[in-house]
Amino acid sequence: MKFEKQAFLVALIGILLFGCKKKEEENTLANYNRSALLTHYYDRLIMPAFQSLDGAAKALENTSIRFANEPTQANLLQARESLDSAFKVLQYVHAFDFGPSELPTGSLTQEIGTFPVDTNQMEVYMAEADTNFNNFRRDTRGINAIDYLLWGKKQRQSDIMLSVDTNAKKRAYIRAVARHFSAQVAIAKNNWLNYKATFIGSTGTEAGSSIANLFNTYNIGFETLKNFKLGLPLGRRAGQSQAEPHKVEAYFSGKSTGYALRHFQHILQVWEGMGANGIDGPGFREYLLAAKEQGARLVADTEIQVNKAIEAGNNLPLNEPLAGLIATNDQRAFDFFNELMATTRFFKSEMASITGIAISYNSGDGD
Amino acid sequence: MKIQSIDKPIWIFPLVTFRVVFGFAGLLGVLRFWHLGWIADQYIEPGFHFHYQGFEWVEPLPASGMYLVFFVQAFSAIGIMLGAWYRISAFAYFVTFTYVELIDKAYYLNHYYFVSLAAFLLMFSHAHHFFSVDVWRKPSLKSLKVPAFEIWILMALIGIVYTYAGLAKINSAWLLDAQPLALWLPPHYDMPLLGSLMRLEFTPYLFSWAGMIFDSTIVAWLLWNRSRPFAYIVLVLFHVVTGYLFPIGMFPTIMSLIVLIFFSAKWHLKWQKEFISKARMCVATAQVHVPTAQVRVPTKLKSDAQFGLQIPWQRLKLLLFAFFLLFQLMFPWRYLLYPGNLFWTEDGYRFSWRVMLVEKLGHIDFYVQENGDSQKKLVYLNEWLNNQQIKQMSFQPDMILEFAHHMSHVFSSNGIPAKISAECYVTMNGKPGKLYFDPEMNLAEIPKWTPGYKWLLP
Questions:
Q1: Which of B116, B162, B200 to mutate to test the interface with A (most CBs of A within 10 A)?
Q2: Angle at Cα A60 formed by Cα A57 and Cα A61, nearest 5°?
Q3: Given an 8 Å threshold on Cβ–Cβ distance, is B427 in contact with A353?
Q4: Theoretical Cys-Cys bridge with A112: which of A98, A142, A150, A230, CB 3.0 to 4.6 Å?
Q5: Is the ipTM above a cut-off of 0.85?
Q6: Model's pTM, two decimal places?
């Protein structure tokens, strides 16, 4: 009798604990394989993005140094081409600007992607032959500094070549900035290479977990696009009395429109879990869908808004400089910004609520 | 209950344990806060703080001053724990802790509020009259008894915390929809031991009901001699599990330690006695002369009425405690005076032991329209607030208003305040985000401290 009772209890507990598992093969938040999600992000999105950036940074370093050593037109054009390539691939690391991307003087995109650059201060450093970059003046180095050095303020190619040819300090600065850029990228890439086990092993959703880090940095990346690549030059920030078109990214080469759209594409790819080579896999979208009706509802709502933003983005003339669009009060630039504004809340608060991903970086306590 | 029985001297030992563990937890709390870099994150770096009504004058000190405050807090916690210069320590701890909490309500936590209240009560207690450095310094201080109300008021406060937290859980979302636990628990399917339980659909219901019953009745089980040990085990398990699942910081540690006050005087005396005899052995082997009277623990305890109500100060204290208790019983119900759903409006939400009751997040964009400007501009919140402040503000009307008023002032031109509007979407328990109030409204025109937030959308 006693044995029967115990057996019954064991069976009951067994059914309770494992019984439902067989029935529910579909993805739910209660069985979602977060490790697979992280592995996909790491293998298909993060590492390819850093490998590409690393390759582009090395190419930019080589071509810039070649141009500094030998300021010919061919070398200038080659360096500019490398710059364009580097700018393009740089757009795909914004959501991964945490953990291994944290460098002593800030995150990778802060260290090498700050804009607008302070050209006056750059000229001062150049004149002083100060190229150690051991300071927090991130607006005197990085890819936007190279943008200034290779393009100048609406200067002709011959003038740029001449100014480099006749100025040893400028040549030294170009070499130093290019080396610094490439070195910082290499550090981040190598950090990421060694971070795989840690990244994939942190499968929780609490503050500091890989998913929370990715989710929160993803949102910062989105805000960078909205607030700084668009809002600030558009003059949308409280306290600005007018538009400030020169505050766009890549102001001197004037290819900012395309870069902003790539940045947006990166945001969408991370949302989808779309790998660099077009391989779709688990992503935030799929994770949300695991949250049943609530998740499906949010995905639908989000995508309605995201599609509006995509449409607004597609309306932008890819080959016209963003600064020019802003200077001429082009409505298309405002529309894109406004649609991004309307998108924010879907990516942030609602998604965090439904998935239980911590919305903070360092866990402030709750109760 | 007769006045005499409230005043009746009872064994001091539970109060002594409370003092020791409270000081210990307090010290741990400061060290943790310091170590995590939160002094700078929360009190030095932000340029703006969210004030409490009536305490608008409380502002943080410059960096070195803030570190000094926490330094004093740590030392006074040690003072409480050891019973060293106890009155000064308890006073310093209460003042520094409460001061820090009053600086910014973005960091409000129920257990911080509890710590402030308990520290307030400890200032008036005789918790240092046994097992303390003060008794070692001044043996005449030693007393084995204290008036009953000094212990009972602490038990009552703990009782209110749990019971009110339990009562707050009696609502349809918590009990019938198992919200917010239905959102919070499933992602923890990989936790040790209980992981597989988290995969089941009924688990949030089980946890919701168990949580409600636990909070509402735990004090009764702790009061009853026969159930007490079992109740304490359940309580510790409860706090360990919730501490694992949710980011609630020091709360589980504090509660697990301080409820020891419910244990019998005999139980407390046992460990204190053992500690003293061990300490005496250490001291003896070190060949230091210690008068035996200071460490002797009598086997037979005598009654002591030196704290009776014939002393006017004791009468005054009793009155103070009675008022304190009445306030604690009444204040959490103030929300009944305000219109609307409490969880939505948060009007009367704080200081009421509503703990982890709702999954609520918001997204807010503030817009400034300066006088004479046709366009409204976006406030980049990160330039004004830290993440915790932004997160808390995004769904709390009083904070939204205070920040709006601040922005209006900052962007005033020629003495004319700027118009401030905001688009705010709030999501509760995973439901679609809803507009919190009219995005065209000028928030700067709404008076800051008026309760009954009629400007919110339903």
A1: B200
A2: 85
A3: yes
A4: A142
A5: yes
A6: 0.91
